[in-house]
Amino acid sequence: MADNVPVFGNHIQEIIRCANFAAIKHKHQRRKDTDQTPYINHPIGVAFILTEEAKVYDLSVIQAALLHDTVEDTDTTFKEIEEQFGKEVMGLVKEVTDDKTLPKHQRKYLQIVNAPHATNKAKLVKLADKLHNLRDLNRQTPNGWNDRRVQEYFEWAARVVAGLRGTSSAMEKELDELFKERKITI
Ligand SMILES: Nc1nc2c(ncn2[C@@H]2O[C@H](COP(=O)(O)OP(=O)(O)O)[C@@H](OP(=O)(O)OP(=O)(O)O)[C@H]2O)c(=O)[nH]1
Ligand SMILES: [Mn+2]
């Protein structure tokens, strides 16, 4: 490495490679909000929660956060992720990817039962993912959702989060506030 390349230079390069990969993969996607926010705002927002709030600086966790919805929501394959970013990142993305071939109620149920068995790194990504989505719901109701569907999403998220506890006090505290506002006790 050249003398003028900082020690963390290669980490920065890896993070930007992931952000760029995710931006290209999600380029045609929009969030379900009325503003039609670009989808990439979500994975970047998840990674931002991890560094700013949870103080997580593990490279593979931040990479997985940026890539976490690429396989679930675009044509990206796990093979592609492994070739580009290695086995560990691919494994983390796999842990946070729902099987979209399953019926929705089963996917949602599997998140609740599988949460306690996830690795610590995957739990971090899952907590940040839920926190970002719940904040989005408080900011704007997605197109086609009513108050009841929003409340049910909060109730389901609280059950998933119950299985992720003991992972990040900062994120769990923020999530608890949101559940309290919704009068959810679990
Ligand atoms: N709150 C919110 N969510 C939006 C918006 N646009 C897209 N989403 C995505 O919608 C998903 C939640 O909606 P659902 O109807 O419950 O699930 P589904 O899309 O998987 O069928 C989340 O997927 P996910 O990230 O894979 O997480 P998860 O819900 O599967 O944990 C979230 O990222 C938006 O404007 N607001
Ligand atoms: Mn997500």
Describe this structure in words.
By secondary structure, this protein is an all-alpha fold. It is 64% helix and 0% strand. It has 10 helices and no strands. Helix 3 (59-67) crosses helix 6, helix 5 (78-85) runs antiparallel to helix 6 and helix 8 packs parallel to helix 10 (169-181). It binds guanosine-5',3'-tetraphosphate (G4P) and manganese (II) ion. Guanosine-5',3'-tetraphosphate binds next to helix 8.
Which helices and strands appear, and what pairs or packs with what?
Blueprint: H1 9-25, H2 41-52, H3 59-67, H4 70-73, H5 78-85, H6 87-95, H7 104-114, H8 120-139, H9 147-162, H10 169-181
Helix pairs in contact: 1-3, 2-3, 2-8, 3-6, 3-8, 5-6, 7-9, 8-9, 8-10
User: Terminal Cα separation, in Å?
Assistant: 51 Å
Mean of pLDDT: 96
Sheet/helix structural class: mainly alpha
Shape: globular
How many helices does DSSP assign? 10
Q: What's the Cα radius of gyration?
A: 17 Å
- The percent range for strand residues is under 5%
The protein's oligomeric status is: single chain
Biggest β-sheet description:
none
Please write the string of helix (H) and strand (E) elements. HHHHHHHHHH
Residues in helix, %: 55-70%
Bound small molecules, deduplicated: guanosine-5',3'-tetraphosphate, manganese (II) ion
Low-confidence stretches: none
Strand segment count? 0
Features:
186 residues, mainly alpha, binds manganese (II) ion
Task: Give a brief outline of the structure.
This protein has helices at residues 9-25, 41-52, 59-67, 70-73, 78-85, 87-95, 104-114, 120-139, 147-162, 169-181. The protein is an all-alpha fold and 186 residues long. It is an enzyme of class 3 (hydrolase).
